[in-house]
Structures are given as C-alpha cells and as structure tokens.
Design goal:
The chain is of the alpha/beta class. It has 5 helices and 12 strands. It has one domain: NagB/RpiA/CoA transferase-like (Rossmann fold, 3-Layer(aba) Sandwich), CATH 3.40.50. The strands form 3 sheets. Strands 1-12-7-4-2-3 form a 6-stranded parallel sheet, sandwiched between helices. A 4-stranded mixed sheet has the order 8-5-6-9. Strands 10-11 form a two-stranded antiparallel sheet. The longest helix has 15 residues. It starts with a helix and ends with a strand.
C-alpha cells in the first residue's frame, strides 16, 4: 500500500512527464546593473529615503563634521555612541559625551545613548536601502538597533543604483543589516508605529564631491 509521501511523489512525476517542453530558455538578466548619471543616482536615493521618512542632509568631504554636529544638535543628543573605527572628524565640533562602542558593553546599556553615528557599507538608490556590514565604521548590530537616533554617513562612492550591484559589494559572511528609513511597522490595526525594532529617527548625511 502506497504511503501519502509516495502518492505525492507519483503525482509530481506524472506532472513532469506531461509538462510541455521548454521551447525558449528563460531569460535571466535580472543581475544586469542599471547605470545612471551621478546626480540622478544620488537624487534617486534621496527621494526614496525621504519617502521612507528619513531626514537627508547633503555634505562635502570638508563639511561632514558640520552636518553631523548639526544633526546631533537637532535631536538634542548629549551622549553619542560611535563604532571603533569611525573618523572622529565626522563629529565636527560636537561637544557632548562620546562613547566608543565595544563588544564588552552590554547591549541593554546602549539604550542610554541619545544617538549613534556610523558609516555605511553600500546604499541602493532604487530601493532606498542602506546596508551595514558590521565593519569598523559601522559597528556591531546592537549599536545600530538599540539607540533611538541613527546618523548615518553615506559616501558617494558607496551609492549604487540597483540591488544586484549592492549585493556584489557585500561580503556574505558578514552580519548584514538593511535600513530603509526609520524603524516602523503598520502590522497592528494598520497604524504606523515608529521605533519598534530599531531607531525611530534616521538622519542620512550624503557626502559627494566639493
């Protein structure tokens, strides 16, 4: 007597036998990268981020510190966390307390930080997604999920147009976090609630040439 498993497998085999042959090969061009001029590439990312309710600021290499300090002042951050390898000049003249993160610091204690400042691994314009990979300028995942405000510095060279290009730049073995605007959900009664599983405020400083 056939078991239920064998019955299912027999049906699959029958379906495969009567399936029409594939006349034309399936076109698999979804990994082809999209090219855009630099200005359009950056403008598209800004449009997507703002649509997701992120605040976007523009900076040049010489004004990163001024923009980051201004962003921290705008949220009245008196205590800020940064990853170990973050360039301290990115904080500009910020005068508050700065805590350099370390794996020995309990994740729960990160809630005492008013904000964090990190870099990014890559950003995808077409989806408005910023990728963090846990490297030196981005820090461990807990640092970017517990505090309420995230100021993320994205360099022009880190911005690509589409997902295939973004994925190619990532190291699969690294812990990848994808950010598309402030943390939010509309699962309950279709009401948007921010800050559910990450910072409720995302400020992105996009750095392009002078």
């Amino acid at each position: 007597m056939n078991t239920a498993r064998e019955d299912i497998l027999d049906r699959i085999k029958d379906a495969l036998r009567i399936a029409p042959p594939v006349v034309e090969p399936v076109v698999r061009d979804y990994d082809a990268e999209i090219e855009l001029p630099d200005a359009e590439r950056i403008d598209l990312l800004i449009d997507r981020l703002e649509d997701y309710k992120a605040e976007v600021r523009r900076a040049t290499p010489s004004t990163i510190g001024a923009e980051v300090a201004s962003a921290l002042a705008s949220v009245q951050a008196s205590r800020v966390g940064i990853p170990p390898a973050l360039d301290r000049s990115w904080l500009g003249d910020y005068a508050g307390e700065v805590q350099v993160d370390d794996a020995s610091i309990p994740a729960a204690s990160l809630d005492s930080l008013d904000a964090i400042v990190t870099g990014a691994a890559v950003a995808c314009s077409i989806s408005g997604t910023i990728f963090l990979d846990g490297s030196g300028t981005q820090g461990r995942r807990a640092l970017t999920l517990v505090p309420d405000v995230h100021v993320c510095v994205v360099q022009d060279a880190e911005i690509v147009v589409d997902m295939p290009a973004a994925i190619r730049r990532l190291v699969p073995e690294r812990p990848i976090t994808m950010i598309a605007g402030p943390s939010a959900t509309s699962d309950i009664e279709l009401q948007r609630v921010e800050g559910v599983h990450g910072p409720r405020t995302l400020i992105v400083v996009i750095v392009s040439a002078e």
